[in-house]
Specification:
about 425 residues, 3 domains
Length: about 425
């Protein structure tokens, strides 16, 4: 039952010892403030690192050929491995767990891409439509390569943001023709990618044309440099990568352990590593944060013991006038809960406000770094932490309260 007199008494006690109450509350507030701050910073670090994967699906892989370094079946190392269209068909037919398969090759040689009196040196790649599913691409204007472009070997191009800026300036590139190695290509779209890191900047400077067109037009028939692959959901990307490499190794008579000839990068493998790292960081943050909160709770318990000692005569008088041990325990525990709850709330609000301020500043100034982005704290976790703090506050006042309830009224009245 709500007892107004008891709450007024708690208020007057805290008001009479302002400095002591403030320092006690500060220890608790600082603990939960640091917990919120560390959780927000850890989330910002996780978001920043995962953002580096940006436009690439989090379970995708890229497999390319190279130069053999391991002797195999009597064949000496030093052979250059080039994949081909038959490899693409084999992967497509033999691995139903592949969701998206995008073969590609780049245009070899030195050349410039020309539009009217402007020219620039850009990487030209033959691509498949499925690359748009492996990389989250956006099309400010026009469209991407489609299946009809591949089938009919159309001379069309989709250009990145840098060729648009250097070749067309303010002019709309859609419907214009660019010249690549003496061959004219119709610009049907422009693209950007989400990733702003090194790979994203590299993609922004590329020009994509249909793979079939590149192979036929520029005498690079049957050559594939890279396979971009996204597996079906719930398929282990590491296991799929191993099996694909074994298949390619068998088709090209090379060792499946030849890491140079079977080059690759698996985003699923890298994401797993980062998730394990961030789980460790999260555990560390919780240990440090809870340790700081416990230190504050211990401080509350010690202060309550001091308060009980100072109020020994008062407690003795209460008991002599008929106060029950339960009412004494309730008074001390409530005072402890008030201190920890109020301080915890202040620390929680301060920590969340600071995180929101940092997030707003980074958004307004566009100052996201490659390793830190969008620091945030799950409010549910904060509420749970505050609830635990209230329970801890009650436990912190329990021992001093029991000591107060056990005071002998006669001895208490004799105390100075």
């Amino acid at each position: 039952m709500f007892d107004l007199d008891k709450w007024q008494e708690i208020y007057n006690t805290m008001r009479a010892h302002k400095l002591r109450s403030f320092l006690t509350a500060f220890g608790v507030a600082w603990g939960i403030f640091m917990l919120v701050l560390l959780l927000g910073a850890g989330k910002g670090l996780e978001n920043g690192v995962l953002k580096m994967f940006g436009s690439i699906a989090k379970n995708s892989m890229f497999i390319w050929g190279g130069k053999t370094v391991i002797p195999y079946k009597g064949l000496q190392p030093g052979r250059y491995v080039k994949y081909n269209n038959d490899d693409y068909k084999a992967l497509k037919n033999d691995f139903p767990e592949i969701k998206y398969l995008a073969p590609s090759t780049r245009l070899y040689g030195s050349f410039s891409v020309i539009y009217q009196d402007k020219s620039g040196s850009f990487q030209v790649e033959g691509q498949y439509p499925t690359l748009a599913q492996v990389k989250a691409m956006m099309y400010p204007k026009g469209r991407y390569i489609n299946e009809v472009d591949i089938k009919e070997k159309r001379k069309v191009a989709v250009i990145g943001i840098r060729p648009v800026e250097l070749l067309f300036s303010e002019e709309d590139p859609i419907g214009k023709y660019i010249k690549i190695k003496g061959v004219y290509f119709l610009v049907v779209g422009t693209f950007t990618v989400e990733n702003t890191g090194g790979d994203g900047r590299g993609d922004a400077e590329k020009i994509f044309i249909p793979l079939s067109t590149l192979q036929q037009t520029f005498n690079q028939s049957n050559i594939i440099d890279v396979f971009a692959i996204t597996p079906e959901d719930n398929v282990d990307p590491e296991e799929l990568e191993r099996r694909i490499k074994m298949k390619l190794a068998s088709r090209h008579n090379m060792s499946p352990d030849d890491y140079k000839a079977l080059g690759g990068w698996n985003s699923g493998k890298e994401v797993k590593k980062f998730i394990a790292l961030f789980n460790g960081i999260s555990i560390f943050i919780w240990v440090v944060g809870i340790g700081t909160i416990i230190a504050g709770i211990v401080g509350v318990s010690n202060i309550m013991l001091i308060i009980v000692k100072e109020r020994t005569r008062e407690i003795g008088i209460r008991k002599a006038l008929g106060a029950t041990p339960g009412s004494i325990v309730s008074l001390i525990i409530q005072e402890s809960i008030v201190i920890t709850s109020f301080a915890g709330y202040i620390g929680l609000v301060s920590g969340v406000s600071l995180m929101e301020g940092v997030k707003s500043f980074m958004a307004s100034s566009k100052s996201d770094s490659p390793f830190f982005s969008n620091p945030d704290v799950d409010i549910k976790i904060c509420v749970i932490a505050l609830a635990i703090l209230v329970v801890a506050g009650a436990l912190a006042g329990l021992f001093p309260a029991r000591k107060a309830a056990s005071i002998n009224p006669i001895e208490a009245l004799k105390a100075e």
